[in-house]
TrEMBL record:
Domain of life: Bacteria
Annotated stretches, region: Disordered: 556-596, 872-911
NCBIfam families, per the entry: cas3_core
Cited SUPFAM superfamilies: P-loop containing nucleoside triphosphate hydrolases (SSF52540)
Keywords: Antiviral defense, ATP-binding, Helicase, Hydrolase, Metal-binding, Nuclease, Nucleotide-binding
GO process terms (BP): defense response to virus
Organism: Rhodopirellula bahusiensis
Segments forming domain HD Cas3-type: 599-870
Name of the protein: CRISPR-associated helicase Cas3
Residue ranges of every copy of the Helicase C-terminal domain listed in the record: 252-425
GO MF annotations, alphabetized: ATP binding; hydrolase activity; metal ion binding; nuclease activity; nucleic acid binding; RNA helicase activity
Basic and acidic residues bias locations: 581-590, 893-911
Protein's UniProt keywords contain Phosphoprotein: no
């Protein structure tokens, strides 16, 4: 035994107290290098514990910085998320590591602010494939659009992905392999890893095959982690599970369950527990109803339980303590569990008798693992109707192959299954484990997804086909709550404990009936940050819907039913310990006009806030080992990122303060103008779509043009070309404002300058790959000639707008006065301009190709985290007073609005 495995064994014993690690767990932890792996281990052999302890041992216990900071645990079902999160938290507590590692659950109704605001802290991120893969594709479900890039940047870089129970993931498995293959093809510019472990009791290497993965698949296959034959010992390997096949119509299955439950041999340790696993929620509910009728007046009535994915978390929380764990079993147990696929994985239960509806072979193997899980013997009965017309959610071919396998075996214990499959030919194995994804993510599509702008039709590229290929695609979220007034208040937000997942198809059927009864259904609108009435056909993956409890559709014992209100078992709202509300970061993602992270308890000038943000960025870069060249660029970015707040539309149209100032970056919440008054000034008109980060970016671009118009990032490479076309570069002879910050810009390479522009523009996630006019821009009154600027605004900025001289700081923290700037929007047009050279679209596309989406997204996330943390009143240095305001204290006017604001409202009434 090596020192490494011996040390891991001691670490493992700190968790389990009495049990040594399995040989396969020691083999996994014995490799000091973290690389891509296939893990094929039978159910019940401690896969979750093995992976968790391996990562914790290397990254936390040993402090190995080569192991990723974030462990991203991807699961096919929400119930598995709860189980894994609970196990991870208990493990950290037993090791005393809960202060060093955060466990974050990513699912609808859970704020994600804390995980992507702490990129330097070790974290375990646990979520469904819908939540995690959508974030990996830069289209995070149940998130505001502006937050997508932050999650994208951190969920790829410095991460170990664990794709768990991959036999249930369909196309999501392919997507995970494709993304890892894309990563392998890029040069790692940050020296940080991205690794994937694929894990299942039935994992087949060929499931990962594609053109892109072909180069890495042979090594993965050769090194696949399995239980070696010499290690097959213990009670689990000695268990016996004789199998029989029962062929009958589904209406007769309940009677078979009743008869067998009372007659089969109970386990002397765990009692009599019958588990019935069916393929659909509808079948499970129907059979459960038949059992309830039969045992209604029976004094010997067993404990009847129904388990499926359409329950609220609040109602699932007690399951582990009541019936869904080993601790609930005793020699006196008398229980029947009726369940769906949710018990195929991640659930610590053992049945003395298992009924399973015929399913694809990988699913059957998982279900067999729920019988005699702790050793001993169990009866296994496969329910089969042989009706090839009703095979949903599976195909007839899948069920035919599984039926043939069931007919060939007499025992389904772990050892018997391993022996059976080892004798099959590759062709027969492929029949048992078929997998042909409908959609394969291409590298070009992945790169396109880096752009989070909506297209000209107002839509995004559909990523659901890369996440799940089931007919229902993904689910929506529903919660039941009472509220005061006619319309729900925006502050009324769901808590994760009250959310219920419903398939899009079932939700559509149910909501159509609800709306026909003239009952209101409310949908959360992420863009406007409000609840809006909706119709049954307005459904999209992970949408959140609110209904009143009186609407019905839910039972505490049966989950989502879609049934009308019932007096016998009325739908009730979940009692909450505290009122759930959106945090400031979430609010800032919901509406373009919100600048929630600029609302702090103290006033801050642009120079002070930018300097403080740069200091936070330096610390983040140090703690995340970001290379020096990127660290310097991020520091410069943060020192300039809010320069555009000196624009009159922001300076005069955002805050109410006395005396008036044009150099403020932060202000107390009460100082902010509300509603239509924001970004509305008499001199510039209504600029509701105004984005200060675009102003900052274009100001930097214009400054470089003034001091060095032939810089490689501008027209340096195009002078000869323009001369041949008879064009002359637009320059301003004699204007060469120089200061230490301008000198920093001049020294940047073309790529670094473009990266600087991009990081400044993207630091709120709302101006990124393209410069497009927003709907609010299109409402601008172009016929009013009195307003400053020319043409239609783009994100609230017009050509001809002027930015006054503004203080920022140089690399040493000294004041640097930036010159007045006149804006020009030519970068928004396509093609080469005689003023700036390449367009914005060309610059950003070149960045994606030259730097790669993973690195670009990570740098973007670091910049945003630094800005947010510098804006946080509870964290230094953001809570320090601004030295530039000590002698000039500011106050908020007591009256409603300033004179200019009142004049503006009167002047703009006709607009």
């Amino acid at each position: 035994m090596t020192d490494q495995t011996q040390s891991y064994k001691e670490f493992f014993l700190r968790v389990t107290k009495d049990f040594s690690p399995h040989p396969w767990q020691k083999e996994l932890a014995g490799n000091p290098d973290c690389g891509n792996r296939l893990i094929r281990i039978p159910t019940g052999m401690g896969k979750t514990l093995g992976v968790l302890t391996t990562w914790l041992y290397h990254r936390i216990e040993q402090g190995n910085q080569d192991w990723p900071t974030r462990l991203v645990w991807c699961l096919p079902m929400r119930t598995l998320v709860d189980q894994t999160a609970r196990e991870a938290k208990l493990l950290l507590e037993s090791l005393g590591m809960e202060q060093h590692v955060d466990v974050r659950v990513l699912m609808g109704g859970v704020s994600e602010k804390r995980w992507y605001q702490s990129p330097e802290k070790p974290q375990i991120l646990i979520g469904t494939q819908d939540m995690l893969l959508s974030r990996a594709l830069n289209r995070g479900y149940a998130m505001g659009r502006a937050a997508w890039p932050r999650a994208f940047g951190l969920i790829h870089t410095d991460t170990l992905w664990v794709m768990d129970e991959v036999q249930l993931m369909d196309v999501g498995l392919t997507t995970s392999a494709q993304i890892q293959a894309f990563w392998e093809d890029y040069e790692s510019l940050l020296g940080k890893p991205r690794v994937t472990w694929w894990m299942s009791a039935t994992l087949q290497p060929e499931w990962l095959h594609s053109v892109e993965t072909a180069s890495m698949l042979p090594q993965l296959s050769d090194n696949m982690l399995t239980v070696r034959r010499e290690d097959r010992f213990g009670s689990q390997w000695a268990a016996k599970k004789p199998i029989e096949r029962f062929v009958a119509a589904p209406k007769d299955w309940a009677q078979k369950v009743i008869e067998t439950h009372s007659s089969h041999t109970a386990d002397p340790q765990t009692g009599r527990q019958t588990l019935v696993v069916l393929n659909t929620v509808r079948k499970a509910r129907d059979l459960f109803g038949e059992l309830e009728k039969h045992y209604k007046s029976d004094e010997q009535r067993p404990d009847l339980r129904l388990v499926h994915s359409r329950f609220r978390e609040a109602d699932r929380e007690s399951w582990a303590d009541e019936f869904l764990s080993r601790s609930t079993l005793s020699p006196d147990t008398n229980r029947i569990l009726v369940a769906t696929q949710v018990v195929e994985a991640g659930v610590d239960i053992s049945a003395s008798c298992l009924f399973t509806e015929l399913a694809p072979w990988p699913s059957l193997v998982q279900r067999f693992g729920r019988a005699a899980r702790y050793g001993g013997n169990a009866s296994v009965i496969v329910l089969d109707s042989e009706d090839n017309k009703k095979t949903q959610p599976y195909t007839p071919e899948q069920l035919t192959a599984a039926r043939e396998a069931v007919e060939q075996i007499s025992d389904v214990s772990i050892g018997s299954l391993e022996d059976y499959e080892s004798k099959l030919s590759p062709e027969d194995l492929k029949k048992l484990y078929p997998f042909t994804p409908l959609h394969v993510l291409l590298n070009e599509e992945f790169n396109e997804l880096f752009d989070t702008s909506i297209d000209l039709s107002g839509f995004d590229m559909d990523v659901s086909r890369f996440i799940r290929q089931a007919d229902d695609s993904t689910d929506v979220h529903v919660f039941w709550r009472d509220w005061e007034g006619e319309t729900p208040d925006p502050e009324l937000q769901p808590h994760r404990s009250e959310l219920c997942r419903v398939s899009i198809r079932d939700a559509k059927d149910w909501l159509s009936k609800v709306t026909k009864r003239k009952e209101a259904v409310w949908k959360w609108d992420y863009l406007d940050g409000s609840w809006i009435k909706t119709k049954a056909d307005d459904l999209s993956p992970s949408s959140v819907f609110l209904v009143a409890p009186q609407t019905g559709g839910y039972s505490k014992t049966k989950g989502f039913t879609g049934a009308p209100p019932s007096k016998k078992e009325p739908t009730e709202s979940v009692p909450l310990q505290q009122k759930p509300a959106l945090d400031d970061e979430s609010k800032s993602d919901l509406a373009d006009e919100s600048e929630a992270t600029s609302q702090v308890d103290t006033w801050k000038t642009i120079a002070t806030h930018c300097w403080e943000a740069a200091q936070v960025a330096d610390e983040l870069c140090e703690r995340n080992d970001i290379p020096a060249n990127y660290k310097r660029l991020i520091n410069l970015c943060l020192r300039l990122h809010d320069w555009g707040k000196a624009h009159p539309s922001f300076a005069n149209g955002t805050y109410r303060c006395e005396p008036s100032r044009a150099d403020l970056a932060k202000a107390p919440d009460k100082a902010w103008r509300k509603g239509n008054a924001i970004y509305n000034t008499l001199s510039h008109g209504p600029r509701r779509g105004f984005r200060h980060e675009l102003a900052s970016c274009l100001a930097v671009l214009e400054l470089l043009r003034r001091i060095d118009p032939t810089h490689d990032a501008l027209l340096g490479r195009y002078e000869v070309f323009l001369s041949e076309l008879g064009e002359e570069p637009e320059t301003q002879p004699g204007i060469h404002e120089t200061n230490s910050v301008a000198a920093e810009l001049q020294q940047l390479s073309e790529q670094d300058f473009n990266l600087l522009l991009y990081l400044i523009a993207s630091h709120h996630g709302k101006v990124r790959m393209s410069l497009q006019a927003s709907p609010k821009d299109q409402d601008f009154p172009l016929d009013n000639a009195q307003f400053q600027g020319e043409g239609m605004p783009i994100r609230g900025l017009r050509s001809g707008d002027e930015l006054p001289p503004t203080l920022v700081t140089d690399a040493d923290g000294n004041d640097a006065l930036m010159p007045d700037i006149t804006f020009d929007l030519s970068p928004a047009t396509l093609g080469l301009s005689t003023r700036y050279g390449e367009s914005w679209a060309e610059r950003t596309l070149k960045l994606v190709k030259s730097i790669n989406p993973f690195t670009l997204g990570y740098l973007e996330a670091i910049v945003r985290a630094a800005d947010c943390r510098a804006s946080d009143d509870s964290a230094a240095p953001g809570n320090l007073p601004d030295k530039r305001l000590v002698d000039q204290p500011l106050s908020i006017p007591e009256h409603e609005g300033t004179n200019e604001e009142a004049s503006t409202k009167e002047e703009l009434q006709h607009v």
